[in-house]
Amino acid sequence: MRTGRGAAPGPALLTALSTTLLVVQHVDREGPGLIGSLARDQGMTIQTIRPDQGDHLPNPDDCPNTIALVLGGPMGVNERYQSELNWLQRELAWLTVWHQQTKPVIGICLGAQLLAVAAGGSVEPLQVGDPPQPLREVGIGAIHWVINPNEDPLLQGLHASELVLHWHGDRIRLPANATLLGSSLHCAEQVFRIDHHAIGLQCHWEITGPSLEQWITEDYDYVVGAMGPDGPSALRQQWASTGAAIERRGRIALAQILSQLSDKIP
């Protein structure tokens, strides 16, 4: 369910007995994916808001029993001062209040970057090498846990490394109160926790096969820029061989994230 453009969410939507997953979406192609499916399986109500299209972000005080899911997008958090992206600055201010109230939140890609900045961190271009060169981390790649997954309830049942989809050109500098959980070869800040109510994922574990095809089609030039002219076909081949396993493992990880955050609802 989505509120109308510019309209405040109705009280009935935010005071239901079931938990609400408040989806903050920034572009049509990047929806909640597997997280939405898992939330419905857990009996949650899903409400989608589009700040980029003028939708009103609700007062956190009026959002009981709610987990916020802040999704990705092609814009960067450091572009929030551009006049055409002034809604992003308003969203950051809203997320800062949400975080300060220790309300549960999941941030993915852009959402993870917004979450980190809201908590006192920063975001900068991803660079590798000496001298440093910009890098777009795009494609199927591994993340590895920097802690023992068996010692953290959030990571129970996961392997020491897992395949995920990468699709970004920035990196996060974590705030002081964040705990790093997972890294990739080129980008350390892939999975992190802030206190006990916020989870950030730079990588995309919410993706499904049909969604990925839409991403490739609509963001074709970005893929080519990252992976070369054969990048789109290579990415399709990667997904054909690994996609089913990635979705299966993603369901395990994301279900545990939802379960853990449901327990943190104040």
Report the radius of gyration as a whole number of Å: 17 Å
Uncertain spans: 1-16
The main β sheet shows up as: 9 strands, mixed
| Strand composition percent | 15-25%
> What's the β-strand tally?
13
The N- and C-terminal alpha carbons lie at a distance of 24 Å
Structural class: alpha/beta
> If helices are DSSP runs of H or I spanning 4 or more residues, what is the number of helices?
7
User: Judging from the principal axes of the Cα atoms, what is the shape?
Assistant: globular
Q: Secondary-structure element sequence? A: HEHEEHEHEEEEEEEEEHHH
Major sheet strand order: 2-1-3-4-13-12-11-8-9
Mean pLDDT: 92
Helix content: 25-40%
Provide a brief overview of the structure.
The protein is an alpha/beta fold. It is built from seven helices and 13 strands.
Describe the protein in words.
The protein is of the alpha/beta class. Helices cover 33% and strands 24% of the residues. It is built from 7 helices and 13 strands. The strands form 3 sheets. Strands 2-1-3-4-13-12-11-8-9 form a 9-stranded mixed sheet, sandwiched between helices. Strand 3, helix 3 and strand 4 form a beta-alpha-beta unit. The longest helix is centred in the last third of the chain and has 32 residues. The radius of gyration is 17 Å and the shape is globular. The chain starts with 10 loop residues before the first helix and ends with a helix.
